[in-house]
Amino acid sequence: MKKIAVIGLGQFGQTLAETLTQQGAEVLVIDKNEKLIEDFKDKTALAVVADATEEEALSAQGIQDFDAVVVAIGDDNFLVTILITTLLKKIGVNKVIARGIRSSDSQIEEKILELVGADRIVLPSVETAKRLAQEVLTTDILNYIPICEGYSVVKIESPNIFFNKSIKDLQIRDKYRLNLIGIERDDKTNYLLRSSDKIEPGDQLIILGKEEEVERFSKNNEEE
């Protein structure tokens, strides 16, 4: 079971926490607003009133042991988002996802979040929160792009069992009901694939398919 922490219980944070919980994750939510936590405590595994800008408060929750932490603070608290992101990386959180803000300076703000250690930056919306929940729970997925209802393009780490095998031999479409549309290797992407092309260690696969098939594929290979 994945352990995910969500800091900030605005609409984005609430939607994300509820979606993660519904999909089987163990979710910790943190907010300094006692009423928000009280209203939300029955919707997730653990809801804690705490000031996430305090390093001791974060460490007390064992935050460094979580698979991912999402900083879901609102637009009017960008400096707080920077501080919390910095603290989380200092404590040793492996994956920090920071909620960006919609403004004319959004590119500058995203660059700042990257500089302080954010592993991923997302712009807020209800649909984004639901998609992010899917991505967070499927650990091998590096990028997740919905293209129409029920279908997505994802970039995913190649499973070990694919190494040194050709696309023809793998029969990805027949076995997994997914379409391999590209392979990224050494920061270069090949979209003109041949059946004789082989998968190498470190390759990232770009796959198109139904979301449930993508999730099943990732979980099966994670178990292997």
Could you explain the architecture of this structure?
- The structure is a single chain.
- By secondary structure, this protein is α/β, with parallel strands linked by helices.
- The protein folds into two domains: 3-137, Rossmann fold (3-Layer(aba) Sandwich), CATH 3.40.50; 141-223, Alpha-Beta Plaits (2-Layer Sandwich).
- The chain is built from nine helices and eleven strands.
- The protein has helices at 11-22, 34-40, 55-60, 78-91, 106-115, 126-137, 167-170, 172-176, 211-223, and strands spanning 3-7, 26-31, 46-49, 68-71, 96-99, 120-122, 141-148, 151-157, 179-185, 188-190, 204-210.
- Counting structural domains, the number is 2
Largest sheet composition: 6 strands, parallel
Which architecture of the largest domain per CATH? 3-Layer(aba) Sandwich
Identify the overall geometry. Answer: elongated
Please state the average pLDDT score. Answer: 85
Classification by helices and strands? alpha/beta
The radius of gyration over CA amounts to 19 Å
In short:
This protein has helices spanning 11-22, 34-40, 55-60, 78-91, 106-115, 126-137, 167-170, 172-176, 211-223; strands at residues 3-7, 26-31, 46-49, 68-71, 96-99, 120-122, 141-148, 151-157, 179-185, 188-190, 204-210. It contains nine helices and eleven strands.
List key phrases describing it.
11 strands; five-stranded antiparallel β-sheet; Rossmann fold; alpha/beta; Alpha-Beta Plaits; about 220 residues; single chain
